[in-house]
Design a protein that fits this description.
- InterPro entries: 23S_rRNA_MeTrnsfrase_RlmA, Methyltransf_25, RlmA_N, rRNA_m1G-MeTrfase_A_prd, SAM-dependent_MTases_sf.
- One of its GO terms (biological process) is methylation.
- Keywords: Metal-binding, Methyltransferase, S-adenosyl-L-methionine, Transferase, Zinc.
- It comes from Brachybacterium endophyticum.
- The protein is α/β, with parallel strands linked by helices and about 325 residues long.
- It has 2 domains: about 55 residues, no CATH class; about 230 residues, Rossmann fold (3-Layer(aba) Sandwich), CATH 3.40.50.150.
- It is built from 9 helices and 12 strands.
- Helix 2 crosses helix 9 and helix 3 crosses helix 4.
- The longest helix has 18 residues.
- The protein starts with 13 loop residues before the first strand and ends with a strand.
């Protein structure tokens, strides 16, 4: 799939020369969440292990990736990647999710994650790792980590605006810039639970990084999701009828379906929450969000309707 232009704030790596002979690339104590998941990460340039050196992450070959002031790692390099949230979309996403309106979805996902960790049979709970691909502001990853007190998390996304939130979403959550349409910069069989929440998927890579007993958890909307809002706001993107069939066709060569549950409920919306909800979705690129406040027909409630599935690697 061709990738459109990336977030202009994505950083490139710096090659500063290999580490001196016999000098290990050490992980520093100043980034505990990142240090906890560092053994999973691999250099996107050469595949070597990474270590923290000052305000950067570096491999033994000298490929160096900056740690941003907000705490996320800029692993993207080379050609531009798929664009993520711009600044206004990230603001709207953070504001809407912080309102708790999507808490039922996050709670259901957290419960399924706990069952997935149990099913995975990790030898030590403290070694359990959760990867959120397309993590946005880190909202769902943080809720999952609340449910798993001994697990550590890593969220990856193309949008540095969203990652500024994700890096602070939870004390045990690290964040890194990456593009789902490229091979993930992670070791084989290194993840216990992989989250894909309203996000693009890379089935072959997901299978590679999951442990044999790990679980892929996929959250996606049904046709009824946000129906009242889509009816009131012309231009919002509809849920394609064949989307579910395409999901199963893409995942089937790599994963076996374990379980699916449907969550459907009604939640209240204030006018501002309705505007933020539209503004955080891809529909924001097709709707004049700034003028939505003038729409007297914005609904005061909306249907949440999603499917949450657990998959086992084949």
């Amino acid at each position: 799939m061709p990738a459109p232009a990336s977030d202009p704030a994505s950083a490139e790596s710096r090659a500063v020369g290999p580490a001196p002979t016999g000098t290990p690339v050490a992980a520093g104590p100043a980034h505990p969440a990142l240090t906890a998941v560092l053994e999973l990460l691999r250099c996107p340039q050469c595949g070597e292990e990474l270590g923290i050196v000052g305000r950067a992450v570096r491999c033994s070959q000298g490929h160096t990736f900056d740690i941003g002031r907000q705490g996320y790692v800029s692993l993207l390099s080379g050609s531009r990647a798929t664009s993520g949230d711009d600044a206004e979309m990230a603001r709207a996403r953070a504001a809407f999710l912080d309102s708790g309106t999507y808490a039922p979805i996050a709670g259901a996902l957290a419960g399924l994650s706990a069952r997935a960790i149990e099913a995975a049979g990790a030898e030590e709970a403290s070694r359990c790792t959760v990867l959120d691909v397309g993590c946005g502001t880190g909202y769902y990853l943080a809720r999952v980590l609340e449910e798993l007190p001994h697990a550590h998390g890593l969220g990856v996304d193309t949008s540095v605006r969203a990652l500024r939130h994700a890096a602070r979403a939870h004390p045990r959550a690290a964040a890194a810039s990456w593009d789902v349409y490229r091979p993930l910069p992670l070791a084989d069989s290194s993840v216990d639970v992989l989250l894909s929440v309203f996000a693009p998927r890379s089935p072959e890579e997901f299978q590679r990084v999951l442990r044999a007993q790990g679980r892929l958890l996929v959250v996606r909307p049904t046709a009824e999701h946000l129906a009242e809002l889509r009816e009131a706001v012309p231009g919002m993107i509809a849920i394609e009828a064949a989307k579910e069939d395409r999901l199963h066709a893409a995942l089937d060569p790599h994963f076996e379906l374990d379980s699916t549950e449907q969550l459907e409920t009604f939640v209240e919306l204030t006018p501002q929450r309705a505007v933020d909800l539209v503004g955080m979705t891809p529909s924001a690129r097709h709707v004049d969000v700034a003028r939505l406040h003038e729409n007297a027909q914005l609904p005061d409630h909306v249907t949440l309707s999603v499917l949450i599935s657990a998959y086992r690697p084949r």
